Amino acid sequence: MSLDRYLTTSDLLDCTGRVTHTLILRPDGRVTVRFASGAEALVCPRERRCITRGMTVDDTVLHAALGMANT
Question: pTM for this one?
């Protein structure tokens, strides 16, 4: 069973309305960023950085993750 359906999620859209990223707030306060390509990265909003090796997350997406974690 996937826990994701019970966690707070938010979709980020581009100017055409297409979902570019899905943010999932984890119980420990970290945020999973799911890219449209299917790749995933884990972000630590408290440290304001991506903690998944080899992945980078745009500042705009990182800011959205930070806002999600602070609500």
Answer: 0.88
